[in-house]
Amino acid sequence: MKLVKNAIGRLVPTEVNGEKQIPFQGVNKYKPEGFKHAPKIPSNVDYPLNGDKRVANLKEALIKAGLRDGMTISTHHHFRNGDLIANQIFDIAKELGVKNLRWFPSASFPCHEHLIQYLEDGTINRIEGSMNGALGRFCSEGKMKGTAILRSHGGRYQAVQDGEVKIDIAVIGAACADSFGNANGLYGQSASGLLGFALADSQYADKVIVVTDNMVEFPCVPWQIQGNYVDFTVEMDKVGIPEKIISGTTKITKSPDRLLLAEMTAKFCDVTGIIRDGFSFQTGAGGTSLSVSMYFAEVMRERGIKARFARGGSNKYLVQMLEEGLIDYILDGQTFDLEGVRSMAENNNHVWTSPFTSYNFHSKGNFAGMVDVVILGATEVDVNFNANVVTHSDGLLLHGIGGWQNCLYSKTVILPLPLFRDRIPVIRDEVTTVCGPGELIDVIVTERGIAINPKRTDLIEKAKNSGLPIKTIQELKDEAEEICGKPEKIEFSDEIVALIKWVDGTVIDAVRKVK
Amino acid sequence: MKLVKNAIGRLVPTEVNGEKQIPFQGVNKYKPEGFKHAPKIPSNVDYPLNGDKRVANLKEALIKAGLRDGMTISTHHHFRNGDLIANQIFDIAKELGVKNLRWFPSASFPCHEHLIQYLEDGTINRIEGSMNGALGRFCSEGKMKGTAILRSHGGRYQAVQDGEVKIDIAVIGAACADSFGNANGLYGQSASGLLGFALADSQYADKVIVVTDNMVEFPCVPWQIQGNYVDFTVEMDKVGIPEKIISGTTKITKSPDRLLLAEMTAKFCDVTGIIRDGFSFQTGAGGTSLSVSMYFAEVMRERGIKARFARGGSNKYLVQMLEEGLIDYILDGQTFDLEGVRSMAENNNHVWTSPFTSYNFHSKGNFAGMVDVVILGATEVDVNFNANVVTHSDGLLLHGIGGWQNCLYSKTVILPLPLFRDRIPVIRDEVTTVCGPGELIDVIVTERGIAINPKRTDLIEKAKNSGLPIKTIQELKDEAEEICGKPEKIEFSDEIVALIKWVDGTVIDAVRKVK
Fold it and tell me: ipTM beyond 0.95?
């Protein structure tokens, strides 16, 4: 395996899984040549004129779709830890004796631990997508036959659009669908809100199967997935476990440490003028982020101002803000609770978006750059503001990238982080894995001080006399190390188990097998 | 020019405008090989990070888009006869000395007569799209430099998708847009309802310009056109003349002849069981069609049944039916009046569709085949049920195809037609131009009798004892000729001025220059 040092100083391979890789060339440095992936031209002649594409079951659909060795099978993660589809697909593949598949989920969850047996026996060659929990550990330990590739939500759309990943069969689970294949995530026992993570799959896959437990008469409206892209539809009893799809209760943190981080973050946004009439923000569904939104809401109420839009992941707090008139629009990528689903179904100002509209870097612009401030998490940050979101400081690959990399293009990126976790400092000389280049990360908020990227002289100036504890990132690192000691270096083997792609499809880092 | 006889017996050229043509091979006989058109991969690097793609004016946008000799420029016809964009584009082209353009509108209207000067002076080489009125006459007289090509709405999507027509610059006029290029036709002085006819253009054109007289702050919701496909946005005072965009008052016919046709059509649908609970229909905005809908509504009210969906062109009568609960959904391709626009903006069951969802024959099915009955017009029908919708019996090319060909795939196709117009019989031995193969046309309703296609033995059986005047098409033709005399044959020159494409991109007929 030939390694080269990429633009951010990481040694990355120029080829994995028999496919050429382009090393990261710097932010905004790489420009694609060539053309979007061109699917075969289908013809209505090959589809039932009455629009009814139902087949008896998933197995029949997979057989009709031509499932065979070496194919790429995609799924989406709107059902999260309640997904019942992906495991079935590979049970069927195993039964049919199909080998060497590439699984290309938009994300995987603990419920997919079931698939480890198929990674072991060669049914699945590798996963390209996030691997939370047991699958991540399996990969980190070098047990996966192929090399994993992790992409952001936008990077996944980009990879499919650009033909980097050619999907042979996409299986799209939907809370609601018609026999033609029009589908949405809004209605039914497995409601998940939207299906945007399956959009690229529907548009570019060779064969598309829609699976639902709520088959309605044509037309299924709205059609978040368009039946015109769909080959087969399948009705089954249950596509997901409702209580695991949606938490039902998204909760604001009660941890005093996290509340402090949230308050400092909100205050920072306030003193620097980020919170203003017509501003926009994206937080997340984590406790700290939610709390930041709540602080934003308080400020907006006090001042009588409102936000033009908030980007989701939506949840009941964001919905309340929309309904209270504090936000004109929620531009939502996924709903995290049932209130989000309800609002999206009822309120035209709660808009479903997709990785294409929001995050695709190989389009004529996307929404990320229009967001005034995003509040994100990270497992580690280094003194150059480079951040890690996939591996822990013990080297284990336990998280996906999600929309994290894509959001770095927002006008101001703030990472509220505890200074240490389990007595391990979060600010390091070097992060274990670089997921985001420091030049795109503006502010680190910790309980012991706020570090502003020296590039953001405007923010430094504005925060100067705010009374907020502004420090350099080196100071924060030193403080953490004074308390916890200098963290030991983890030992890795040379073997590369996963690549981390940047939003433009280049390789920003590689993850090595833990010893 | 080499001519071959196609599967429906018409002599068509194998090449026009330097491009190879495939002769019509029969209904459902031709299957495309190859891949969809693959646009260049763009990169966010080349677009403003804040999403603001505004340029000063249309001229600047066209220059930035690289307007030059021989390009293909597309526009849409949602502004109908009130369009102010297309003429400006070619005024600018003329000013810049650009020559030999292909204009690729989704349809042209009398307001575009202004462009004849540019067809004469070589600014425009040819029009590929419908040519109503003066432009049609100009073409029929052999005055256009290139050969016109007419496509159905679905055929236009197909041609763009398949790369048959590569659009260099698409100019999309929108009633409402943001600076990023998200756009809809719902709000503003130039509201036209939707923008579906520009969908293919936005997805596949090399450069896309959105022009609006109602620039709103991001996000413009809903985004019927996605800004992620857009290169430049332009604000101007007026993109259309409202009273010419939308009639404001769609009117039911008061003509006793047409009312009779409508009544006979509705009665036919009733006795043959087409009107049933959960059925679906598509009429049009013409007087006769509107009246058919009204009869349908009466029957549904009487029986206490409803339609699952109606396909638009929508109008106030269809909206009333939706609001009365006689229809579950309107699946709309274009709104013909302001009530249609209002309903689409307010009512989520009034759904905007596109030529992709409804009509594209080179997709994995479309909506047309799911419609129980469509009521269409025609200029002529022949004894084999082949029909013409583009030329008059005097040979002049005066109409476009619209969605007409696409609708022929519906379960039952009925053409209510007067037996003669201006003492010229409508039923002929041979139509002047074949637009639709007779095997897809089921019923001809005239004031003197109803002819059922012999292929539809089911309908013949059901109509048998209905009291309706069922006749053969030959009988109807004979009756007309008894009254009006046998029509004289028109003389054409050999010169081909236009091709008529079938829904699969093959050439079903050619239109010759009138003598």
Answer: yes
